[in-house]
């Protein structure tokens, strides 16, 4: 008898990719749920138009005898949800209703939740890489980060109330690659990219293909717990802007919120104060826990197919060309950096 898997958020790209891939494997009856009709091909997935904020989701779970729920309905930006209040309703209230329905189900055995690196916030006091047991040095105050923290709290509550259920929470790095639409990709695609003067944020990415692979691992196998999932390497903001071929505009830190507000007003991006912090200080995650957990299953474990740098390169390849040639920009900056490093030595010799 095939396992019955309910996947939320299938009208969005990552949810559609995951549900379609799982259904194509065979051995699974996959039910895709979303409030909007799917924009992408779902293949063998059975689509049900339903709002997880409505208690009717409990009837769907009960009538289809769902044993596994993969929750991917979290909206990243207020703009895509129709405002901050609507975003919170979908992210937090929707999760509460979904988990309440799961708790009552007699057939429910497994929950997989797509969480985010944003739970760690961003501050100048952050460690080089966050491990799963670490708390944010500066807790997110708004937006997706705050919602993700609340969602994880509700998920832990369900795990306590239903110890018979295997619960896996995957904290995914920012997605990057061809076709990805996010606050980071919109920011890097600006004709002129503003950046906070004196800072060079550390950026860590995950390719959508690797995100799907990680979610498949957690769905197929028993991997309870919370895990960071990202490419191991780091790309600095300066490097990413160079690769995009965009000129950057240094902005004093005190003026960064105002600049973010102007970008929102111009509808070029949706940047909360937490997003500004992330693009100022950056953040990164340690990923060895998930690698070890999956290696115990097949002896090899999960390793991302794309590095953070390769994710950016793929996105650059399908993006509108920047005003500058990235190769020429890198070469010019290397010459400047080289001249600056040699100049003090020459002055000392002639002093």
From TrEMBL:
It comes from the Bacteria. Residues 5-230 form the NAD-dependent epimerase/dehydratase domain. Pfam families: Epimerase. This is SDR family oxidoreductase.
């Amino acid at each position: 008898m095939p396992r019955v898997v309910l996947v939320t958020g299938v009208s969005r790209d990552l949810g559609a990719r995951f549900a379609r891939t799982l259904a194509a494997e065979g051995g699974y009856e996959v039910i895709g749920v979303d409030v909007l009709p799917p924009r992408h091909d779902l293949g063998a997935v059975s689509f049900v138009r339903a709002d997880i904020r409505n208690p009717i989701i409990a009837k769907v779970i009960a009538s289809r005898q769902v044993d596994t729920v993969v929750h991917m309905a979290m909206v990243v930006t207020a703009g895509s949800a129709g405002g901050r209040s609507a975003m919170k309703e979908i992210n937090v209230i929707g999760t509460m209703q979904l988990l309440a329905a799961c708790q009552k189900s007699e057939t429910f055995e497994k929950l997989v939740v797509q969480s985010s690196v944003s739970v760690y916030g961003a501050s100048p006091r952050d460690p080089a890489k966050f491990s799963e047991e670490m708390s944010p040095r500066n807790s997110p105050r708004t937006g997706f980060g705050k919602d993700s923290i609340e969602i994880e709290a509700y998920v832990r509550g369900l795990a306590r109330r239903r110890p018979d259920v295997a619960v896996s929470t995957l904290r995914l790095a920012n997605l990057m690659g061809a076709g990805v639409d996010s606050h980071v990709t919109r920011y890097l695609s600006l004709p002129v990219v503003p950046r906070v003067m004196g800072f060079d944020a550390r950026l860590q990415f995950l390719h959508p293909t690797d995100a799907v692979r990680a979610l498949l691992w957690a769905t197929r196998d028993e991997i309870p717990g919370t895990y960071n999932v990202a490419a191991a390497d780091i790309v600095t903001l300066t490097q990413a802007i160079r690769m995009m071929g965009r000129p950057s505009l240094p902005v004093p830190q005190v003026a960064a919120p105002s600049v973010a507000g102007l970008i929102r007003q111009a509808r070029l991006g949706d940047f909360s104060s937490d997003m500004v912090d992330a693009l100022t200080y950056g953040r990164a995650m340690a990923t060895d826990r998930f690698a070890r957990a999956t290696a115990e299953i097949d002896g090899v474990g999960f390793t991302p197919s794309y590095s953070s740098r390769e994710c950016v390169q793929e996105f650059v390849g399908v993006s509108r060309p920047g005003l500058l040639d990235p190769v020429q920009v890198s070469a010019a900056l290397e010459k400047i950096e080289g001249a600056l490093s040699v100049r003090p030595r020459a002055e000392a010799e002639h002093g």
